[in-house]
Write a structure and sequence with these properties.
The chain is built from 9 helices and 18 strands. It is of the alpha/beta class. It has a single domain, classed as Ribonuclease Z/Hydroxyacylglutathione hydrolase-like (Metallo-beta-lactamase, Chain A, 4-Layer Sandwich).
């Protein structure tokens, strides 16, 4: 794809937009009421057997050349590839006294292997969590962090030493004995950290590449044409980690979040081979109950079965680690295969 035709962020008066003609997100009249309604009804979200059904705690391997993916919860993954250990949007605890985790982190902070790189999709507190980031900095002082354009200042103020910021389509190289590339890519979302900084920083998604493997981390996003544009740049994506919630109320959430049906279409647009759902089952941000996004995903997958063909969906538990091979089959701990 010619770089002249790549989707670029819209910018006006030092703020970023998905589209200058549409201001999709209202913090006070949309986000806050949705969160308050979710908070009021949160007791109906979590089934009694959630820990036994959806938490799989095991000690992660210290390193892996063969690509390995472990879901920690929400949008947090440990991606181990080419001998490099990567965290996406790390959140290991509660967000606040009001917004607590429905299931614990699949890997605890003190069980992490040495982390080489953190990739952040945007600065919302459920993706850029200061408590988790500070703990990782203390534990792994040489860890590098790559962030969207406009977020580096936050890290500089807090003494982080190895932070770089990127616009869409820029990339970062991480070298140990092998070289892994992290490419910052478009998403359809927004940013805000405090009352006065709405959209002052960018948002996006990431492609993690090593040799001929490509793992796509979708960040937090609504459905939009950006998935098809990414597929033109990366025509052989092995795994897509895509958000499937919050789902409800749909009239509001669709502005900035995909539900499972839209995520299935995004997966098809990307041309990826394996789909791992994320951004569900961890925090009660919408009106959907704990399992709603996965119920929607199973239904949507059946509806699109004729289009999906041999592609596979892998609904993994928090803490569950999966290896990836080029036959597009996940191996769990090199012992058990699922969705084969």
């Amino acid at each position: 794809m010619n770089s002249m035709h790549r989707i670029k962020p819209q910018r006006k008066n030092n703020r970023f937009y998905n589209d200058l003609n549409h201001h999709a997100e209202s913090f006070w009249f949309g986000t806050v009421p949705s969160f308050m309604r979710a908070l009021w009804q949160r007791n109906r979200y979590v089934p009694a057997n959630v820990h036994s059904d959806w938490l799989h705690t095991e000690q992660p391997v210290s390193t892996s050349h063969e690509p390995r993916i472990t879901w920690i919860g929400h949008a947090s993954f440990l991606i181990q590839i080419g001998g490099i250990n990567i965290l996406t949007d790390p959140v290991f605890g509660d967000l606040s006294m009001l917004f607590k985790r429905m299931i614990p982190a699949g890997i605890s902070l003190n069980a992490l292997p040495t982390i080489d790189l953190i990739v952040l999709s945007h600065n919302h507190r459920d993706h850029m969590d200061s408590t988790s980031l500070h703990a990782i900095k203390q534990q792994f002082p040489n860890c590098r962090i790559v962030v969207p354009w406009g977020d580096k200042h936050w890290f500089d103020q807090r003494g982080y030493a190895h932070v770089t910021e990127h616009m869409w389509w820029e990339h970062e190289l991480v070298t140990n004995h092998e070289t892994v590339t992290a490419t910052f890519l478009p998403a359809h979302h927004w940013s805000q950290r405090s009352f006065f900084d709405k959209n002052r920083s960018l948002w996006g998604s990431w492609m993690i590449s090593w040799q001929n493997y490509h793992i796509y981390f979708g960040g937090d996003t609504a459905y939009s044409p950006h998935f098809a544009h990414i597929a033109q740049e990366f025509p052989s994506i092995d795994v897509a980690l895509l958000p499937v919630g919050p789902c409800e109320p749909r009239w509001w959430m669709q502005r900035t979040h995909m539900d499972a049906r839209e995520a299935c279409q995004a997966f098809l647009d990307l041309g990826a081979q394996n789909f791992v759902p994320m951004h569900w089952g961890t925090f009660a941000f919408g009106l959907d109950n704990f399992i709603t996004p996965i119920e929607y995903l199973r239904t949507a997958w059946q509806e699109k079965e004729h289009e999906l063909g041999a592609k596979q969906v892998h609904i993994i538990k928090a803490g569950e680690g999966m290896y990836v091979n080029k036959q597009f089959v996940f191996d769990m701990s090199n012992e058990k295969q699922i969705n084969k």
